[in-house]
């Protein structure tokens, strides 16, 4: 069942975190934050919505990093129920798509809860003051990739944030699989 997260709560502060990547290196928000903003993405390996746009995510992340936006991806799914989202497979996924950003594992799911993440993919775009300015979708893609010339909504929003510190007021929520919470 597809889930749509709520609209952007402008100005909400980014929660801090300390999470490992699959190799055990620990990253905090400070470690991944960019001088002109930060994009925190909740993704996972198995979700068809993520898989439909994973190459677009990497493309946009690399371009945003050149604009001074820090980028990080976090997987918070319960790997007991969804073993394809386990850290060793996250590492393979990151290598397969040449991620230019850390892909971190939120085993306790506390970070996902602190952010209010609801689905994969779920995007949180912060300005340099770590104030939320974007909680929308990547583009018009769904379970299948959108048109090759689909408007790059996330990229445009984050580029605006890098330039002005403010996100667009009109945002369309992301849509994806619900985060697989532990019971």
TrEMBL record:
Pfam families: AhpC-TSA. GO terms for molecular function: antioxidant activity; oxidoreductase activity. InterPro entries: AhpC/TSA, PRX-like1, Thioredoxin-like_sf, Thioredoxin_domain. Residues 8-159 form the Thioredoxin domain. This is AhpC/TSA family protein. The lineage of its organism: Bacteria, Pseudomonadati, Pseudomonadota, Alphaproteobacteria, Rhodobacterales.
């Amino acid at each position: 069942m597809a889930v749509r997260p709520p609209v952007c709560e402008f100005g909400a502060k980014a929660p801090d975190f300390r999470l490992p990547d699959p190799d055990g290196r620990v990253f905090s928000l400070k470690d991944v934050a960019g001088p002109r903003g930060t994009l925190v993405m909740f993704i996972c390996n198995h979700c068809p919505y993520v898989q439909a746009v994973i190459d677009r995510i990497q493309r946009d992340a690399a371009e945003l990093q050149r604009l001074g936006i820090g980028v990080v991806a976090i997987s918070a799914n319960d790997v007991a129920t969804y073993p394809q989202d386990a850290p060793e497979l996250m590492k393979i996924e990151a290598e397969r798509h040449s991620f230019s950003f850390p892909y971190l594992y939120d085993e306790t799911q506390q970070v996902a809860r602190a952010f209010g993440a609801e689905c994969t993919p779920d995007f949180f775009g912060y300005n340099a003051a770590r104030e939320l300015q974007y909680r929308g979708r990547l583009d018009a893609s769904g379970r299948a990739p959108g048109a090759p010339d689909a408007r790059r909504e996330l990229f445009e929003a984050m580029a605006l944030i890098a330039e002005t510190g403010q996100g667009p007021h009109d945002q369309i929520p992301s849509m994806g699989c619900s985060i697989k919470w532990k019971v």
